[in-house]
Design a protein that fits this description.
The structure holds two protein chains of two kinds.
Chain A lengths: L3 E4 L2 E4 L5 E7 L7 E6 L6 E5 L3 E2 L7 E6 L2 E6 L9 E6 L6 E2 L3 E5 L1
Parallel strand pairs in A: 2-11
Antiparallel strand pairs in A: 1-3, 3-8, 4-5, 4-9, 5-6, 7-8, 9-10, 9-11
Chain B lengths: L2 E5 L3 E2 L5 E8 L8 E8 L6 E6 L5 E3 L7 E6 L4 E6 L8 E11 L2 E8 L3 E5 L2
Parallel strand pairs in B: 2-11
Antiparallel strand pairs in B: 1-3, 3-8, 4-5, 4-9, 5-6, 7-8, 9-10, 9-11
The chains are: A mainly beta, B mainly beta.
């Protein structure tokens, strides 16, 4: 099974900052990667799929890049509503697997 | 607007079978463009894929749970269900149902999720 590793596990930042979260796959997954945002007590929300395609309705300050084994999620100008936990997920091969999550906290 | 809603007991005894149902509204479970999946999240931990099903009944299960999992679909009720047998405390989690994009014969990301339901395994 493919393992997904995110870094950092947690991150402190301020409103207006630019932040980047990294996700690494244990083997190549082409661009079959999604990013999700999860707020406490809520279900995850799809932000990005196919590594860089923004889901409908997601603000353009979110962007994704990468292919193969290394991927990044960037939030260009943090807003208060962006403080949450972020997960990557590969869907290149079965079973689909999630990273362990990156908790984005207010500094 | 598509909505998914999980239902079932919030407390299950060890060694018994966990049973949950996901009711889909605002869209048809019989669409050829989607699978329907179950994902779980132990308290304070990350997400784990349990399995998924097509309206035809075709299933994919996570090998780590395959021996204990059964997912079924009832197209007449626009529902799909999860059964997890021989549960232990390690199966305590929030269980989510979700829609899985299915494109060109491949499973894709999860674009709609239910709100989740906490299932606790305890005597």
């Amino acid at each position: 099974a493919i393992r997904m590793t995110q870094s950092p596990s947690s991150l402190s930042a301020s409103t207006g900052d630019r932040v980047t979260i990294t996700c690494r796959a244990s083997q190549g997954i082409s661009s079959y990667l999604a990013w999700y945002q999860q707020k406490p007590g809520k279900a995850p929300k799809l932000l990005i799929y196919a590594a860089s395609t923004l889901q409908s309705g997601v603000p353009s300050r979110f962007s994704g890049s990468g292919s193969g084994t290394d991927f990044t999620l960037t939030i260009s100008c943090l807003q208060s509503e962006d403080f949450a936990t972020y997960y990557c997920q590969q869907y290149y091969s079965y079973p689909p697997a999630f990273g362990q999550g990156t908790r984005l906290e207010i500094k | 607007q598509l909505q998914l809603q999980e239902s079932g007991p919030g407390l299950v005894k060890p060694s018994e079978t966990l049973s949950l149902t996901c009711t889909v509204s605002g869209g048809s479970i019989s669409s050829s463009s989607y699978y329907w999946g179950w994902i779980r999240q132990p308290p304070g931990k990350g997400l784990e894929w349990i399995g998924s099903i097509y309206y035809s009944g075709s299933t994919y299960y996570n090998p780590s749970l395959k021996s204990r999992v059964t997912i079924s679909v009832d197209t007449s009720k626009n529902q799909f269900s999860l059964k997890l047998s021989s549960v232990t405390a390690a199966d305590t989690a929030v269980y989510y149902c979700a829609r899985v994009i299915y494109d060109a014969g491949e499973l894709g990301p999860l674009d709609y999720w239910g709100q989740g339901t906490l299932v606790t395994v305890s005597s």
